[in-house]
Amino acid sequence: MKQAEESFFRQRQQLIISAAMSCFSRSGFHGASMADISRESGLGAGQIYRYFHSKEAIVSETITSIVRAWSAFLAEHLPQQHSTAAIIRSDSDFWHQWPLRERRLLLETYSEASRNERVRDILAQEEALLLTTLTSAFASRWPQLSSQQRLYRIQLMLLLVDGVACRAFGDENSLDDTELARINAILSQRIFC
């Protein structure tokens, strides 16, 4: 019976987080209210408080969830990209695999990190794990590079991806194919030491 109760508890938490993600992607962490989350989840506020002691706990769990999903996405998809255009163009197949709701939540998370040390810590911890995973994944792709050169290259790729994530709702016509070719050439050289 205990296992069934724990399973039900986790299912309810996930229902609440899913509802919160929808609310937060529309209104932001500070714009969405507990009433919004209650309405979206179909649960009363009192029921929600059985699973999370505060809105801040829901925000924290949502941030953790989105950051882990983002890291898992990057760990799976970034090593498969062989072109800078694939990661810089927000209309590429790479980005179509990361849903718009999650893009909004990621942008909201980055914004929250600028004013919340706890969120910065969550991002830093997950990035450290991601770097370890990507370093291993890229070892076979760039065997000629030292581990430090590989790390620098991965960090540059992550900066590019984060930049695209942050400008996801901006001007799509600002990319130049010549500039993309130049960036690809830079990434293919052994200049990162």
Automatic annotation (TrEMBL):
Pfam families: TetR_N (PF00440). Gene3D superfamilies: Tetracycline Repressor, domain 2. One of its GO terms (molecular function) is DNA-binding transcription factor activity. It comes from the Bacteria. Keywords: DNA-binding, Transcription, Transcription regulation. Residues 33-52 bind DNA. InterPro entries: DNA-bd_HTH_TetR-type_CS (IPR023772), Homeodomain-like_sf (IPR009057), HTH-type_TetR-like_transc_reg (IPR050109), HTH_TetR (IPR001647). The keyword Cytoplasm does not apply. Residues 10-70 form the HTH tetR-type domain. This is TetR/AcrR family transcriptional regulator. The lineage of its organism: Bacteria, Pseudomonadati, Pseudomonadota, Gammaproteobacteria, Enterobacterales.
